[in-house]
Amino acid sequence: MNADHPKIVDPWLSRVIKKVPRVGRYLILGAAVTILAFAIDKGCEYFPESSFQLASESNLPKWITLPPGLTRADVSITMNYYTLGGAGFVLQDARGQTLEKVNGTVKCQNFHLKNPPQGFPPGYPSYAVITAKGATEIIEHRKMEPVFYITDDPAVWKEYRAFGCG
Q1: Residue 114: its pLDDT value, please?
Q2: Shortest CA distance to 59 belongs to which of 72, 69, 78?
Q3: Cis status of the peptide bond prior to 67, with omega within 30 of 0
Q4: How far, in Å, CA of 163 to CA of 111, rounded?
Protein backbone atom coordinates (compact mmCIF):
# COMPACT_ATOMS: atom_id res chain seq x y z
CA MET A 1 0.00 0.00 0.00
CA ASN A 2 1.23 3.50 -0.84
CA ALA A 3 2.30 5.66 2.15
CA ASP A 4 0.26 8.55 0.71
CA HIS A 5 -2.91 6.49 1.06
CA PRO A 6 -3.06 5.00 4.55
CA LYS A 7 -5.17 1.91 5.09
CA ILE A 8 -8.59 3.05 6.30
CA VAL A 9 -9.91 -0.28 7.56
CA ASP A 10 -8.25 -1.99 10.51
CA PRO A 11 -6.51 -5.19 9.27
CA TRP A 12 -8.41 -7.33 11.79
CA LEU A 13 -11.77 -5.87 10.71
CA SER A 14 -10.82 -6.32 7.08
CA ARG A 15 -10.16 -10.05 7.65
CA VAL A 16 -13.47 -10.45 9.52
CA ILE A 17 -15.44 -8.73 6.76
CA LYS A 18 -13.86 -10.95 4.11
CA LYS A 19 -14.85 -14.06 6.07
CA VAL A 20 -18.51 -13.01 6.34
CA PRO A 21 -20.44 -14.10 3.24
CA ARG A 22 -22.03 -11.38 1.14
CA VAL A 23 -25.56 -12.32 2.28
CA GLY A 24 -24.40 -12.17 5.90
CA ARG A 25 -23.06 -8.66 5.37
CA TYR A 26 -26.44 -7.53 4.06
CA LEU A 27 -28.20 -9.15 7.00
CA ILE A 28 -25.89 -7.38 9.44
CA LEU A 29 -26.43 -4.08 7.61
CA GLY A 30 -30.20 -4.61 7.65
CA ALA A 31 -30.18 -5.40 11.35
CA ALA A 32 -28.09 -2.30 12.08
CA VAL A 33 -30.46 -0.07 10.09
CA THR A 34 -33.49 -1.59 11.84
CA ILE A 35 -31.96 -1.05 15.28
CA LEU A 36 -31.02 2.52 14.37
CA ALA A 37 -34.55 3.31 13.12
CA PHE A 38 -36.10 1.83 16.27
CA ALA A 39 -33.68 3.81 18.47
CA ILE A 40 -34.55 7.05 16.67
CA ASP A 41 -38.30 6.36 16.89
CA LYS A 42 -38.26 5.38 20.56
CA GLY A 43 -35.54 7.87 21.45
CA CYS A 44 -37.89 10.72 20.64
CA GLU A 45 -40.30 9.40 23.25
CA TYR A 46 -37.62 9.59 25.93
CA PHE A 47 -35.95 12.80 24.77
CA PRO A 48 -38.60 15.41 23.94
CA GLU A 49 -37.71 18.81 22.58
CA SER A 50 -39.83 20.47 25.27
CA SER A 51 -42.32 19.43 27.93
CA PHE A 52 -45.41 21.18 29.36
CA GLN A 53 -48.08 20.52 31.99
CA LEU A 54 -51.75 21.17 31.25
CA ALA A 55 -52.98 24.01 33.48
CA SER A 56 -55.30 22.71 36.19
CA GLU A 57 -58.02 25.12 35.11
CA SER A 58 -57.85 24.05 31.45
CA ASN A 59 -60.19 21.61 29.73
CA LEU A 60 -58.82 18.23 28.74
CA PRO A 61 -57.95 17.63 25.09
CA LYS A 62 -60.75 15.87 23.16
CA TRP A 63 -58.61 12.79 22.65
CA ILE A 64 -58.08 12.14 26.38
CA THR A 65 -60.69 10.01 28.14
CA LEU A 66 -60.91 9.97 31.91
CA PRO A 67 -61.24 6.52 33.44
CA PRO A 68 -64.48 5.89 35.35
CA GLY A 69 -64.42 7.31 38.85
CA LEU A 70 -61.84 10.02 38.15
CA THR A 71 -62.48 13.73 37.73
CA ARG A 72 -60.41 16.44 36.04
CA ALA A 73 -58.96 17.35 39.45
CA ASP A 74 -57.65 13.78 39.92
CA VAL A 75 -55.37 13.79 36.87
CA SER A 76 -52.54 15.66 35.22
CA ILE A 77 -51.44 15.76 31.60
CA THR A 78 -47.93 16.24 30.29
CA MET A 79 -47.42 17.28 26.67
CA ASN A 80 -44.09 16.72 24.95
CA TYR A 81 -43.12 18.30 21.65
CA TYR A 82 -40.77 16.20 19.51
CA THR A 83 -38.29 17.50 16.96
CA LEU A 84 -39.87 15.66 14.03
CA GLY A 85 -43.28 17.40 14.27
CA GLY A 86 -45.06 15.24 16.77
CA ALA A 87 -46.50 15.71 20.22
CA GLY A 88 -47.19 13.18 22.94
CA PHE A 89 -49.68 13.44 25.77
CA VAL A 90 -49.46 11.43 28.98
CA LEU A 91 -52.43 11.22 31.36
CA GLN A 92 -51.43 10.41 34.94
CA ASP A 93 -53.33 9.99 38.18
CA ALA A 94 -52.41 11.73 41.46
CA ARG A 95 -49.91 8.93 42.29
CA GLY A 96 -48.09 9.50 38.97
CA GLN A 97 -49.35 6.26 37.42
CA THR A 98 -49.71 6.50 33.63
CA LEU A 99 -53.32 5.98 32.60
CA GLU A 100 -53.12 6.79 28.89
CA LYS A 101 -50.63 7.87 26.24
CA VAL A 102 -51.71 9.60 23.03
CA ASN A 103 -49.49 10.74 20.17
CA GLY A 104 -50.49 13.53 17.84
CA THR A 105 -49.27 15.46 14.84
CA VAL A 106 -48.42 19.14 15.04
CA LYS A 107 -50.14 20.77 12.07
CA CYS A 108 -49.20 24.34 12.82
CA GLN A 109 -46.86 25.63 15.48
CA ASN A 110 -46.08 29.07 16.85
CA PHE A 111 -48.83 30.97 15.12
CA HIS A 112 -49.93 34.22 16.75
CA LEU A 113 -53.00 36.40 16.62
CA LYS A 114 -52.75 39.48 14.40
CA ASN A 115 -54.13 41.55 17.27
CA PRO A 116 -53.19 39.75 20.50
CA PRO A 117 -55.09 40.58 23.67
CA GLN A 118 -53.59 43.03 26.16
CA GLY A 119 -51.70 41.79 29.20
CA PHE A 120 -49.51 39.14 27.54
CA PRO A 121 -45.72 39.29 27.20
CA PRO A 122 -44.36 40.09 23.70
CA GLY A 123 -44.81 37.11 21.36
CA TYR A 124 -47.62 35.60 23.45
CA PRO A 125 -50.02 34.02 23.44
CA SER A 126 -48.67 31.58 20.88
CA TYR A 127 -50.57 28.59 19.53
CA ALA A 128 -49.93 25.11 18.18
CA VAL A 129 -52.54 23.03 16.38
CA ILE A 130 -52.38 19.32 17.15
CA THR A 131 -54.43 16.45 15.77
CA ALA A 132 -54.71 13.10 17.55
CA LYS A 133 -57.26 10.30 17.21
CA GLY A 134 -58.98 12.31 14.45
CA ALA A 135 -59.66 15.33 16.70
CA THR A 136 -57.93 18.71 16.43
CA GLU A 137 -57.18 21.02 19.34
CA ILE A 138 -55.48 24.38 19.59
CA ILE A 139 -52.82 24.50 22.29
CA GLU A 140 -52.23 27.90 23.87
CA HIS A 141 -48.98 29.04 25.47
CA ARG A 142 -49.67 32.24 27.43
CA LYS A 143 -46.11 33.02 28.44
CA MET A 144 -42.71 31.37 28.58
CA GLU A 145 -43.45 28.71 31.17
CA PRO A 146 -43.89 24.92 31.18
CA VAL A 147 -47.69 25.23 31.14
CA PHE A 148 -50.20 24.90 28.29
CA TYR A 149 -53.94 25.36 27.83
CA ILE A 150 -56.58 24.01 25.48
CA THR A 151 -58.37 26.95 23.88
CA ASP A 152 -61.95 26.94 22.68
CA ASP A 153 -61.92 30.66 21.82
CA PRO A 154 -63.86 31.07 18.53
CA ALA A 155 -61.70 34.08 17.58
CA VAL A 156 -58.54 31.95 17.81
CA TRP A 157 -60.12 29.17 15.73
CA LYS A 158 -61.26 31.71 13.12
CA GLU A 159 -57.81 33.24 12.84
CA TYR A 160 -56.22 29.77 12.66
CA ARG A 161 -58.46 28.88 9.71
CA ALA A 162 -57.55 32.17 8.01
CA PHE A 163 -53.86 31.69 8.80
CA GLY A 164 -53.65 28.88 6.28
CA CYS A 165 -51.33 26.43 7.97
CA GLY A 166 -53.93 23.70 8.56
Answers
A1: 87
A2: 72
A3: no
A4: 8
